[in-house]
Amino acid sequence: VQLVESGGGSVQAGGSLRLMCVMTQHTYLSACMAWFRQAPGKEREGVAAIYSGGGKTYYSDSVKGRFTISRVNVNNTVYLQMNSLKPEDTAMYYCARRNGACNPALLSAEFAYWGQGTQVTVS
């Protein structure tokens, strides 16, 4: 399974960006798709996840109400709509996948597949 992210960029505070993650190898297994982010000098943080089996979503407190994760199973694509962006949202954003249901704790160690990351900068 390969994950390819796109959609990062630079935006002013209060603006919006939409990240996209495409899985290049199709699979029918139930899976948890998630977005993580990592700022320089900080640990990788799970920000949102969605379960392919029923669409249940999970968010970190830091992005709840501002970010929305969604997916289109037919083309193995996951989106992260980011609104009301803040400078503290600046980070490299990674798409990740694990088999099975999502763990609301969003632990990076539980995800086996990762994309290369896309940079988001909020000024």
Sum up the structure in keywords.
single chain; 123 residues; mainly beta; seven-stranded mixed sheet; four-stranded antiparallel sheet; 11 strands; globular
Distance between the termini: 34 Å
Percentage of helical residues? Answer: under 10%
* Uncertain regions spanning at least 5 consecutive residues: none
Overall 3D form: globular
How many distinct helices?
A: 0
Average pLDDT, to the nearest integer? 92
Task: Count every beta strand, where a strand is a DSSP E run of 2 or more residues.
Answer: 11
State the major sheet: 7 strands, mixed
Q: Element order, helices and strands?
A: EEEEEEEEEEE
* Structure classification: mainly beta
Overall radius of gyration: 13 Å
Beta-strand fraction estimate: over 45%
Structure overview:
With 123 residues, the chain is an all-beta fold. The protein has strands spanning 3-6, 9-11, 17-23, 31-38, 45-51, 57-59, 67-72, 77-82, 91-99, 113-114, 118-122. Strands 2, 4, 5, 6, 9, 10 and 11 form a seven-stranded mixed sheet that branches. The model has no long low-confidence stretch (mean pLDDT 92).
